Task: structure prediction
Amino acid sequence: MLMQRKSLCHAWGANPVYLFGKYLLGVKPTAPGYTSYLIEPSLGGLKWINGKVPTPNGNIEVYMDETKLVVKSVQGNGIIRIKSLKPPKVEKGVIIKPVSANLYDIILATSPKEYTIQYW
Result:
């Protein structure tokens, strides 16, 4: 059986909501039940974005503007992947790994927490 990753219940209303969470907020599971996930937000030409993606144990919340990203995680092991001209600034103790030129992974802890990231 082929699983579709969109809602067919509301042809014009629900599918854009799914696309917003996946492509603008950039929240994608990398394991069943969001036990691990990747957050790769993109403004897509907007000044800011703000939204929540539901998971089995609560929402993952993402706010992003042109210089700041705020993520509230509730479960699992997450990674924030962000483009920045220089290393992003986060609170002490948070691991930042360079991936390639101007691309960084920020490792999220498993406990519920809010992360604020400054980037350029």
User: Anything to note?
Assistant: DSSP finds one helix and nine strands in the chain. The mean pLDDT is 85. The two ends are 44 Å apart (CA to CA).
